[in-house]
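Reader question, answered in our methods column.
A reader sent in the components of a multi-part assembly and asked whether the whole thing could be modeled at once rather than chain by chain. We filled in our standard form and ran it. Here is what they sent:
COMPLEX SIZE: two components
ENTRIES:
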Amino acid sequence: SQQGEEDPQALSIQEGENATMNCSYKTSINNLQWYRQNSGRGLVHLILIRSNEREKHSGRLRVTLDTSKKSSSLLITASRAADTASYFCATDAKNTDKLIFGTGTRLQVFP
Amino acid sequence: DAGVIQSPRHEVTEMGQEVTLRCKPISGHNSLFWYRQTMMRGLELLIYFNNNVPIDDSGMPEDRFSAKMPNASFSTLKIQPSEPRDSAVYFCASSSFWNSNQPQHFGDGTRLSIL
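And here is the structure of the entire assembly that came back:
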């Protein structure tokens, strides 16, 4: 069963705009990870946030985690055409070490 | 540094044939994961290994699927006999440890088409 669901399924923006993607999950977690997948390629790890953290930054990426709402968001600031990709959240459950990936958000950034 | 290497990148074969997918993890990584990605079901974990030992194969869909890891630098995923519904992109990933707080490093996948 899927643990994470991303929202929206697809997002189209202009270069320079910010992109926000959301992830909701069902059970309590130890940590949550975000990955990017370019067309025809494998997933690339972006950032990991632990359950006791509320916000984390990496370059133009900002991730928040609200464990009370079982949700996370990924913000990409000042987007570029090269950010065009699918973005996935991945969660574990407290009693497993497996990652379960969400359904993904397809981001299109127009130049 | 070389990333996770998968071969072949593309495979087209007729149903009933045996298919073998190969993976070379990142050197020094102790954990290896096999995933399948389809439009309908998304990214599914099939099996994962820690120190060459299968830990959880509950995601393997049927007995037609088998995976081995004879040593730390090589793993195979075999489908015998193959069926059209096995068509998907199969990814291999490795991580330094099997704990879920470790990032996973993915290969570029094998796109499998069963006719």
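What stands out: The radius of gyration of chain A is 13 Å. The interface with chain B takes residues 2, 30-31, 33, 40-45, 48, 50, 88, 92, 96-104 of chain A (CB under 8 Å).
Send us your own complexes using the same form.
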